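cron nightly-structures :: item 1 of 1
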Amino acid sequence: MFSYIKGTLEEIEEGYLVVENHGIGYQIQTSADVSGKLPSIGSEIKIYTYFHVKEDGLALFGFLEKETLRIFQLLLRVNGIGPKGALGILSALSVADLRFAVLAGDVKAISKAPGIGAKSAQRIILELKDKLDIAEVFEESGAKPEQQKESSAKNEAVQALVALGYSSSEALSAVTKAEVSPDADVEEILKASLKQMALV
């Protein structure tokens, strides 16, 4: 119903914000991550929204980026995950970290979100794995792959680091910061990534 709402940021409260558009104040529920990125009160703002209809009321959920809204909607399709649960996940994990945790099968990382246990985390991984692309993780991290081959090698390198005991966010950070050539193989990326981790 509402693709986005553009207007003046009037209020910022815990868990929601208010945007005024043509004399109407829209209360929009959002994640802690969004709250930390908002401009000052009185600023012009554009919020991508999801209109949720339930038996006891209506609610608007919003995000600064269209991709975050897409991930939120994907989470809602997972059995047992409602709007509050999805917001909790996006408050605990950035979109890049969540995407990578799903692709790497990192149950522990997703379980850090409030109200999400190991079973729910496994269900999220199972249902979203085929809907997410590792290349998008590297694009968001600023290391855009020139070829699908490079993305595949980085994907394998990150999965190998997770298997060695590193968290998905640590592995993602190391692989994206590793200085390697575009045609580097998995072994070269792993060596460079481990070297990067040693510098931290």
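cron nightly-structures :: done
Residues 51 and 60 are 5 Å apart (CA to CA).
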